[in-house]
Amino acid sequence: MLETARRGDLAVLDALCDWHAQGLGVTLATIVHTYGSAPQEIGTLYAINARGDQAGALAGTCLGTWIRDRMSKISGPQPRVETASGTDGVFLPCGGRVEFLVENDPDPSHLDAWRSAMAMRTSVYRIVDAESGAYTLNPAPPRAQSLWTGRLWRGAYGPAWRVLLVGGGAVSVELALIAQSLDFAITVSEPRTELRATFPHGLATVTAAMPDDAVASMKPDCRMAVLALAHDPRLDDLALWEAAPSAAFYVGALGSKDTHFRRRARLLGLGVDPAAVARIQGPAGIAIHSRTPAEIAVAIAAALIAEKRRELPLASYRLSNPIDHEALIP
Predict the structure, then answer these.
(1) pLDDT tens digits, one per residue of 132-162
(2) Helix H or strand E encompassing 195
(3) 64 pLDDT tier (thresholds 50, 70, 90)
(4) What is d(CA 257, CA 328) in angstroms, rounded to the nearest whole number?
(5) Where do the DSSP E strands lie in the chain?
């Protein structure tokens, strides 16, 4: 089952490996620290090749342009640390600054191993020593945090965030639009031919697989959410039966509290573990009195963000005091 994330780490690594295969020189910039207001997270990747092609969330932005111009003046294999702020002509409100680790032509075998780990949905630390230029990959726990010491970057990278939407109706369309902007890889399970045919092309991977089969084939982990949005118990219950006991970080369904009460009773009657049934959010989303499909999608997207941040706080912190750098390498 194909999945795509528009601007995620894997997309950047795919671009880097492809450019290397074409014989193009490449430069990789990683946000290792931010001060005040910043447009992207710690660990965000941006890449550019010798032809000027760009990849990453900063491509096409004023900050991406600043990095590109800065990179054109940097040569040699030694990593560099560059800091962008408002004084550099970059709009960062509230005195924000962004610190980048810039690397020219990282080893293709290292990039390929990193990409393979992401594709296999494995969490890793990418460790770069800005003084020696050495870098390596090590296994990382799911809740790993990134760390920048001013010399050593230990970036925590995990697989792409995914969401499975059951049903191809209006709420799924609106939620897919929002989830796409949040860099979720979106899959829609819609066995009904008429709804599957009318789902907007290119917005998600759409499969005719029954919901329980779709959930099982995707092997939910702590970076995947499952939303039962078909409003048809014959489909929604199948997805929830498979997803509730899984490792998915969020499992929810449409419907009123009364509908959810009956849904819980059905699942319990099917032998689903009570603790698993209890974790199903119904109605899905945060309580904002939403009524329209777009409003419901906003409520659900907000809940996904809240759970994502709570479950996997991949924050970064910086140590300013002298430390044992070797102790940071697992």
Answers:
(1) 889 999 999 877 889 999 999 999 998 889 9
(2) helix 193-198
(3) confident
(4) 48
(5) 26-35, 45-49, 54-56, 80-85, 97-104, 124-129, 135-139, 146-148, 152-157, 162-166, 185-189, 205-207, 224-228, 250-253, 316-318
What sections of 22-120 are H helices per DSSP? Answer: 62-71, 108-119
Three-class DSSP category at 67: helix
16 Cβ contact partners less than 8 Å away, ≥ 6 residues apart? 26, 28, 47, 55, 106, 111, 115
Q: Which residues pair with 154 in a beta bridge?
A: 127, 147
Angstrom distance (rounded) from CA 139 to CA 149: 20
d(CA 252, CA 275): 14
> Cα(first)–Cα(last) distance of the chain, in Å?
34
Query: How does 250-287 read in b/e, with b if 16+ C-beta sit within 10 Å?
Result: bbbbbbeeebbeebbeebeeeebeeebbeebbbbbbbe
Token pair for 242: 């498979």
Asked whether 188 and 174 are in contact (CB, 8 A), the reply is no
β 97-104/205-207 pair status = unpaired
Residue 210 confidence (pLDDT) above 90 = yes
Q: Model pTM? A: 0.81
Query: Which tokens belong to 153?
Result: 């970057």
The CA distance from 112 to 118, in Å, is: 10
Q: Which of 114, 104, 13 is nearest to 50 (CA)?
A: 104
What the block records as the tokens of 262 is 């009956």
